[in-house]
C-alpha cells in the first residue's frame, strides 16, 4: 500500500465526521477548514487561490465525496512527500475530528485508554482492507490480537473471537474500527488482567508495526574515537539503525545509515568480548556485541531483512507481511473457487450417464478431489518442514561452530589471565620495592632538609655576629680618628710632664690611693662608682697615650731607651690588651659619665702639670 492510500484512509474518517446528516456531502466552509489543516500537517504550501477557485460560490449546495476527491488528489495527496511530515501528527488530526463524533464514552471507560484508542485506530488502518467503508477481517484481527498477547507474554485464545462472530453474523464480513474498539474495551476479544500491562503491550506493537521497527534491544557498541565499549539501546528500521542512551529514547547518541553496499557479518571473539558482529557501511564499520549467541543470530537476521527491504524500496516490514498474507488468502480463495467450479462441471456432465453410473462417478470423483487436495497440502507441509529443518540445521551448525570458537577463546583467555596474574605478582613486588625505596628517599630528604635548616640557622647567626663586628669596627675607627685629631695636644703635654709620668714613684702612687679612698668615703655610692670608672678610663687613656708617644718619638743612634714600667689597671688576655675589651670598657665609662653628669676630679699628675 502506497503513501497516498494510507493518507486517504485517515482523510476518509475526517470527511465522514463532517457529514453530520450522513448524506455523503459536506459544506464548503468545513472542507476549506479541513483543507487548511491538511496543508499544515502535511507541510505543503497553502494555495489560497486554487482553494477558492475550486470552492467558488456559484456552486450550489455542499460538496460530495466525489466532488472533493479531484481537489484532494491533485493539490494535497499528489504534493505529500514521505519524510517531510510526521504521519503520527497527521493521523492524530484525523482521529481528533472523528473520535468526537463516533467514539463512545463507554470505550474509554473500559480496557482502552484514550491513547490506546488512538494507537489501535492507527493499527486498524494499517491492517484494514482497501475498500470503503473501512473494515478489518477476521485473519487480520487474529494477527493483531496475537501480537498484543505476545507482547504481554501471553498466549492468545481465539475462542472469544469465534464466539463473538458466531453470535453476530454481520461481523463475519469485517468489523469497523468503532465496533473493534468497543468489543476489545469490553473484554470480548482479549482477556487482560491489568490495564497497565495492556497499555504497554499496545505501545510496543504500535512502535513495531506503525513506526516500522524491525527489532529493538540493548547491545554493546565499540566507540569510534575512544575505542571503549558502551551499552546502548538500538532501534532497527529498514533505513537505519539508531542507538540511544536507554530505552526511553530521550537522548539519541547516533545513527547507522543502512545505505547501498552495507553488509552485516559475524566477528570472532576478541578483547574479552563474545558474540561479536559488525555492520560495514561505505562510511565506517560499527562493531557490536550481543548478550548471547541467539541474540546475535536474531540481530544479524533482522539487519539482513532491513537491508533487503531497503534494496527493494519498501519502507515497512509489516506492510510486506500484510501483502503476503493477502496473497495467501487470495490463493486459497482461488483454489476453493477452482474446486467448487470443478465440482459444478462434474455435476453438469453427470446427466448424460445413467443414474447408477452417475452415482458411482460422483462417489468416485469426490474422494479423488479430496485425495488430490490432501496430497497437495501434505506435499506443501513436507516441503515447509524440510526447509525449516534445513534452516534449523544450518543454525545449529553455526551455533556449534560458534561454541567451538568460544571454547578456544576461553582457553586463550585462561592462558592470558594466567600470564597476567604472573605479571601482576611481579608488578606488586616491584611496587613494594619502589615503596621501600621511596620511604628511604623520604628519610634522606628529611635529613637533608633538617641539616639545611640547621645550616641556615648557623649562617644567620654568623651573619648577625659579623654585622655586630662590623659595627664595632666602625666605632673603633671613629674613636681612633678622634684620638688622632687630639694627638698634637697630647704630645705637647707629654713633653712637659714626661719625667714624672715615666718614673712614677711608689710614694705618689701611695698618695693617690688615700685621696681616692677619702673621696669615695665622702661621696655617695653611685658617685663613687662613677669616679672609679672614670679614673679607670683616665688611667687607661694615659697609658695608651704614653705608649703612642713612645712609638711616635724618633729613635736616634746611640739613644738609650729607658723602659718605664706601666701600671696596668685593666684585665689582659695573653699578656696583650684586646681591642674588644678596651672599647667596651671605654664606652661603658663614657656612657656612665654622660648619664650621671659627673666629671671626675683631676689627678695629682694633672694638677702638677697645671701648676
UniProtKB/TrEMBL annotation:
Which segments carry the region annotation Disordered?
332-396, 484-536, 588-611
One Pfam family this sequence matches: PH
A GO cellular component annotation in the UniProt record: nucleus
Q: Where is the composition biased (Polar residues)?
A: 333-346, 493-506, 588-602
Q: Where is the composition biased (Basic and acidic residues)?
A: 363-396
InterPro entries the UniProt entry points to: EF-hand-dom_pair, EF-hand_SWAP70_N, PH-like_dom_sf, PH_domain, PH_SWAP70
Question: What residue stretches are annotated with the PH domain?
Answer: 212-308
Q: Where are the transmembrane segments?
A: none
Give the source's domain of life in one word: Eukaryota
> In its UniProt entry, what is this protein called?
Differentially expressed in FDCP 6 homolog isoform X3
Q: Which organism is it from?
A: Carassius auratus
- Taxonomy of the source species: Eukaryota, Metazoa, Chordata, Craniata, Vertebrata
Amino acid at each position: 500500500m502506497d503513501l497516498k492510500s494510507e493518507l486517504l484512509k485517515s482523510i476518509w474518517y475526517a470527511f465522514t465526521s463532517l457529514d453530520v446528516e450522513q448524506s455523503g456531502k459536506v459544506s464548503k466552509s468545513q472542507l476549506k477548514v479541513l483543507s487548511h489543516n491538511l496543508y499544515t500537517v502535511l507541510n505543503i504550501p497553502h494555495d489560497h487561490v486554487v482553494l477558492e477557485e475550486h470552492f467558488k460560490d456559484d456552486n450550489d449546495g455542499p460538496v460530495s465525496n466525489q466532488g472533493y476527491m479531484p481537489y484532494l488528489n491533485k493539490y494535497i495527496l499528489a504534493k505529500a512527500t514521505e519524510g517531510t511530515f510526521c504521519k503520527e501528527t497527521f493521523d492524530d488530526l484525523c482521529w481528533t475530528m472523528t473520535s468526537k463524533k463516533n467514539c463512545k464514552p463507554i470505550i474509554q471507560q473500559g480496557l482502552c485508554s484514550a491513547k490506546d484508542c488512538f494507537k489501535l485506530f492507527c493499527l486498524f488502518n494499517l491492517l484494514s482492507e482497501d475498500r470503503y467503508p473501512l473494515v478489518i477481517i477476521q485473519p487480520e484481527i487474529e494477527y493483531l490480537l496475537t501480537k498484543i498477547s505476545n507482547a504481554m507474554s501471553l498466549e492468545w485464545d481465539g475462542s472469544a473471537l469465534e464466539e463473538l462472530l458466531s453470535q453476530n453474523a454481520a461481523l463475519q464480513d469485517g468489523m469497523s474500527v468503532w465496533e473493534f474498539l468497543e468489543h476489545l474495551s469490553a473484554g470480548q476479544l482479549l482477556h487482560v488482567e491489568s490495564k497497565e500491562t495492556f497499555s504497554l503491550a499496545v505501545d510496543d506493537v504500535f512502535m513495531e508495526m506503525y513506526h516500522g521497527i524491525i527489532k529493538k534491544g540493548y547491545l554493546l557498541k565499540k566507540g569510534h574515537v575512544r575505542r571503549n565499549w558502551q551499552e546502548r539501546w538500538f532501534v532497527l528500521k529498514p533505513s537505519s539503525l539508531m542507538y540511544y542512551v536507554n530505552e526511553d529514547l530521550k537522548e539519541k547518541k547516533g545513527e547507522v545509515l543502512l545505505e547501498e553496499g552495507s553488509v552485516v557479518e559475524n566477528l570472532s571473539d576478541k578483547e574479552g568480548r563474545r558474540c561479536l558482529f559488525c555492520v560495514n557501511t561505505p562510511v565506517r564499520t560499527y562493531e557490536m556485541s550481543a548478550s548471547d549467541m541467539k541474540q546475535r543470530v536474531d540481530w544479524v537476521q533482522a539487519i539482513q531483512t532491513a537491508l533487503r527491504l531497503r534494496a527493494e524500496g519498501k519502507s515497512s516490514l509489516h506492510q510486506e507481511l500484510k501483502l503476503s498474507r493477502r496473497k495467501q488468502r487470495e490463493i486459497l480463495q482461488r483454489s476453493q473457487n477452482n474446486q467448487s467450479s470443478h465440482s459444478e462441471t462434474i455435476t453438469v456432465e453427470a446427466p448424460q450417464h445413467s443414474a447408477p453410473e452417475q452415482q458411482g462417478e460422483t462417489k468416485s470423483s469426490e474422494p479423488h478431489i479430496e485425495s488430490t487436495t490432501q496430497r497437495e497440502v501434505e506435499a506443501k507441509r513436507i516441503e515447509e518442514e524440510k526447509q525449516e529443518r534445513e534452516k534449523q540445521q544450518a543454525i545449529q551448525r553455526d551455533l556449534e561452530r560458534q561454541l567451538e570458537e568460544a571454547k578456544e577463546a576461553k582457553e586463550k583467555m585462561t592462558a592470558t589471565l594466567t600470564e597476567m596474574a604472573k605479571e601482576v605478582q611481579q608488578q606488586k613486588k616491584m611496587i613494594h620495592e619502589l615503596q621501600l625505596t621511596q620511604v628511604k628517599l623520604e628519610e634522606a630528604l628529611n635529613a637533608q632538609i633538617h641539616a639545611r635548616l640547621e645550616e641556615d640557622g648557623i649562617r644567620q647567626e654568623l651573619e648577625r655576629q659579623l654585622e655586630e663586628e662590623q659595627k664595632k669596627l666602625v666605632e673603633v675607627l671613629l674613636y681612633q680618628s678622634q684620638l688622632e685629631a687630639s694627638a698634637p695636644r697630647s704630645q705637647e703635654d707629654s713633653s712637659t710632664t714626661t719625667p714624672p709620668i715615666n718614673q712614677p714613684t711608689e710614694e705618689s702612687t701611695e698618695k693617690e690611693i688615700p685621696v681616692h679612698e677619702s673621696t669615695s668615703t665622702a661621696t655617695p655610692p653611685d658617685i663613687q662608682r662613677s669616679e672609679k670608672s672614670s679614673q679607670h678610663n683616665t688611667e687607661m687613656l694615659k697609658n695608651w697615650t704614653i705608649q703612642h708617644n713612645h712609638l711616635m718619638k724618633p729613635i736616634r743612634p746611640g739613644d738609650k731607651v729607658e723602659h718605664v714600667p706601666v701600671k696596668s689597671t685593666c684585665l689582659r688576655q695573653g699578656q696583650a690588651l684586646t681591642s674588644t675589651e678596651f672599647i667596651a670598657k671605654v664606652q661603658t665609662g663614657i656612657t656612665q659619665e654622660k648619664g650621671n653628669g659627673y666629671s671626675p676630679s683631676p689627678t695629682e699628675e694633672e694638677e702638677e702639670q697645671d701648676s
